[in-house]
């Protein structure tokens, strides 16, 4: 089959959607499918386009057997609501203009958010006579409302109308979490929604070597708590730094934050001497970075929105056989407890987080046991090869002769 991925996020950028789409695309190519990607010039989250892509209206390249067409985008840092909307609109327009240059396909996979990709995806699907698969990694506009980025009014009404339109046009809706799937079913889309979670390359993350990295960072002999991911509004990392301040009396425990995002500048200003803040790391270095940790942190703010969230870094830590110290509620907490892969504390509770860190630092045998349990669980249920086979079956279901268009329901 022939598949077109439409996404503003793609390697060499680092992040959950970038990894999810690239790893799936590569595996589909290995399984004999023709795959092309229509994406933006790399710029996320810094808003800086790398020199090799700068001053170009677009590029064509091949990455691991996948044909990648990059188009211009209004590049801006991942902060500032209006500028981000302008960036999303610019990619939507550029993707629509690129439609005639894309090869024929059987299905168009649309990554959301942003919702504007749904418009471009619909145009591409219509132009190619293809089915439209709409992947929901985050519920918009609900998420921006709960994060305080948009208030009731015309913009919210317009965003809600666009959201509903995208769901109606889709032939298949993929929900990254069970919580999103349930919401879609309750909204009347049960006939076209399927759970399709994030995953991990279990073998790659199991092979990480962190010894040299610990030496380079001056962390030999330390008990390292690692957070690797986005520094944004959703993670509540100020409470993680508050926990680090409570741990300052134990010189052995050290917190490492690796990433980038809207909150980076403020977090750097708040960090104490027992905190190291690293820039966002290349994807190739992530297995070694996780292997350099004793415990991996996953944190979300205490908002109803995140009860159905499962950050992809959870799977990566489990694959690396590192226990997860989770400061969150809901679906990700249930997953961690089912896997017996870590310790769960209430979100945005520095005292509970610090106490759990002390307990783990004092019990290396428990850390080892939790890490090994997590690796077994994620290898069985969330390995990317397993998920690629599942996606292939979903793709056949939506493009086969017995399939009917989603259309308006």
Q: Helices, strands, pairings?
A:
Layout: E1 2-6, H1 16-30, E2 34-40, E3 58-63, E4 66-71, H2 81-98, E5 107-112, H3 116-128, E6 131-136, H4 142-146, H5 154-169, E7 172-175, H6 178-186, E8 193-195, H7 202-206, H8 211-216, E9 223-230, H9 237-246, E10 253-260, H10 264-270, E11 275-278, H11 286-291, E12 295-299, H12 312-319, E13 324-327, H13 331-339, E14 342-345, H14 350-361, H15 364-381, H16 384-399
**What is the fold named in CATH at topology level of the largest domain?**
Rossmann fold
Strand percentage = 15-25%
Q: CATH homologous superfamily of the largest domain - what is it? A: Glycogen Phosphorylase B
The biggest beta sheet reads: 8 strands, mixed
Estimate the global geometry from the Cα principal axes.
globular
What's the β-strand tally?
Answer: 14
Named CATH architecture of the largest domain: 3-Layer(aba) Sandwich
> Any idea how many domains?
2
How many DSSP H or I helices? 16
Using the CA coordinates, give the radius of gyration: 21 Å
For the terminal residues, how far apart are their CA atoms?
A: 26 Å
Would you identify the regions where 5 or more consecutive residues have pLDDT less than 50? 404-409
Mean pLDDT: 92
């Amino acid at each position: 089959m022939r598949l077109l991925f439409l996404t503003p996020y793609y390697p060499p950028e680092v992040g959950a959607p970038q990894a999810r789409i690239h790893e799936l695309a590569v595996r589909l190519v290995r399984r004999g499918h023709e795959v092309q990607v229509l994406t933006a010039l790399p710029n996320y989250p810094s808003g800086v386009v790398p020199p090799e892509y700068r001053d170009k209206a677009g590029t064509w390249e091949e990455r691991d057997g996948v044909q990648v067409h990059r188009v211009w985008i209004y590049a801006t840092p991942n902060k500032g609501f209006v500028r981000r909307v302008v960036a999303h609109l610019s990619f939507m327009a550029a993707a629509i203009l690129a439609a005639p240059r894309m090869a024929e396909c059987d299905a168009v996979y649309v990554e959301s958010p942003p919702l504007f990709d749904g418009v471009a995806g619909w145009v591409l699907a219509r132009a190619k006579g293809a089915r439209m698969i709409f992947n929901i990694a985050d519920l918009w506009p609900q998420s921006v409302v709960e994060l305080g980025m948009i208030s009731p009014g015309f913009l919210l009404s317009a965003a809600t109308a666009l959201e509903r339109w995208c769901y109606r046009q889709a032939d298949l809706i993929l929900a990254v979490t069970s919580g999103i799937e349930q919401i879609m079913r309750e909204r009347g889309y049960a006939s076209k929604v399927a759970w399709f979670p994030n995953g991990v390359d279990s073998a790659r993350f199991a092979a990480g070597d962190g010894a040299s990295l610990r030496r380079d960072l001056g962390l030999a002999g330390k008990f390292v708590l690692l957070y690797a991911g986005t520094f944004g509004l959703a993670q509540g990392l100020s409470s993680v730094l508050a926990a680090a301040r409570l741990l300052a009396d134990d010189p052995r425990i050290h917190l490492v934050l690796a990433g980038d995002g809207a909150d980076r500048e403020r977090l750097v200003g708040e960090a104490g001497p027992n905190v190291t803040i690293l820039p966002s790391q290349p994807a190739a270095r992530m297995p070694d970075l996780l292997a350099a940790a004793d415990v991996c942190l996953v944190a979300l703010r205490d908002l109803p929105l995140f009860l159905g969230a499962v950050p992809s870094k959870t799977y990566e830590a489990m694959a690396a056989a590192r226990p997860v110290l989770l400061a969150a509620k809901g679906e990700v907490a249930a997953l961690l407890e089912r896997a017996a892969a870590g310790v769960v504390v209430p979100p945005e509770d520095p005292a509970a987080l610090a106490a759990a860190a002390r307990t783990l630092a004092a019990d290396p045998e428990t850390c080892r046991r939790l890490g090994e349990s997590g690796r077994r669980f994620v290898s069985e249920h969330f390995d990317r090869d397993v998920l690629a086979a599942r996606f292939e079956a979903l793709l056949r279901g939506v493009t086969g002769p017995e399939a009917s268009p989603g259309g308006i329901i």
